[in-house]
Structures are given as C-alpha cells and as structure tokens.
Give the backbone structure.
Amino acid sequence: MQEEGEMVTPGEVLGKATELKAGKGAYIGSYRDTDIQYVFSSLTGLRRTLSPSPDSPDQRPTVEVTGHKAHGAVPEPGSVVIARVTKVMAKTASADIMCVGPKSVQEKFTGIIRQQDVRATEIDKVDMHLSFRPGDIVRALVLSLGDARAYYLSTAKNELGVVSAESAAEEEGAMSDLKSSAMVGLPMPSLLTREYKNIHYRTHCLTTCATMVPISWTEMQCPLTGQIEQRKVAKVGS
C-alpha cells in the first residue's frame, strides 16, 4: 500500500472501493476484467488520504491525487478516445491513445481492443487482422483499466472504429519505388506527414495523396487504385 505523499501515475491502483472513497484526481473502476471495484489515480501527482468527519455516515477515508503542475487529458471509463493502432494480434490490437475527447494527452497511455469488443454482433467471427492494421486511427470507447496500466477499449458501436487508414497496396508500391530510387541513385522522395487535427476518413499514401473512402461498415477503398481493404469502419459524421 502506498505511503502518504507518494508519487502515483494515471491508472495506478490506490485501494479497494470498499475501503476508500475517490476524491479529486481519482476514479472508481473494475480491475483486470473482474467485478471488484478499485480506486485509481487519474493523473500524475501526490497521493494523500483524508479522514472522514466523525459524524459522517460513510466512515471510509477519501483518497485524492494532487498534481504539482498542469497536465493533459487522462482516459477514464466512458471516455471517447482517438488512438493509433500499433500492433495487431489474433485476439487483440494495441494502440497508443492520442486524444481524450477533443483534448490531446501529454503522457503515454496504451489501449487494448479485444476480439469481443470490436463489434456488437457475431463476436466469434471477428478477425482482428481484417478489422485493424498498424497505423490505423480509431475512435474508441474506454471500458476500464486492464492489465499493466493499459485501458480496455471498445469499437462495438456504429460511430466507433477506424476513422483513418493507410492503403496496404499504396504502401507496398511506395516501398518498391523507394528501393528502385535508391538502386539507381535517384533522390529519395519525401514522405508525407500526417495531421490529425480534423480526423476524417483519409489515407496518406507515400507516392500520392489519396482519400480512403468507406464503402460499407467493413470495407474501405482507395479511389486511385480501386484497392478494397477490410476494416471495422466508424460511421461518418458521428
């Protein structure tokens, strides 16, 4: 158990909700996919415990976290976040959370999308590799804190899912062009930078700049090559 005044970080367990009340800089949530409720820190700062007043019907102490400086947005259960997919495996996809609502984060937060949280129907038929690819930008809902300070995310609503994606076909073509240029001593083409200030459906190809358009809830298409790729697509305009 932490000592009074100890430095804690976002997502760190402060104690059981049956023994503590969540004050400023703290929130209550489940831990490791169980029904047990815990109090978590929502920011980086100093932990302290406040004793209840003698006449209070609830005699649990209140735990709070006080930050020593301004800090960015922090994911909490129920928050809608924008995240970049970093790794896709058979049962899960990992992502770096970039924004909580309209606010950007200033610390590193990791999200995990599990197979059962990709969509609401036919969960057993979900193929993670046909739902997301590394580099995809997704809009997701924070479910709870998972293992190792990673947040469990869900895309199981129409308005949640991939909002920006790169075309695998264009990536492969670009890499081929880069290798060819290097072999013959031609100048290497500059890579296009990505901007996420106004998230919408698009792709930044390395050889050309095109918009990947959604053609169904499960497919997006490059308008230049006609290449169709499968994704768990978020509803436009949500």
User: Anything to note?
Assistant: Residues 170-209 have pLDDT under 50 and may be disordered. The first helix runs from residue 168 to 184. The radius of gyration is 22 Å. The chain is about 5% helix and 35% strand.
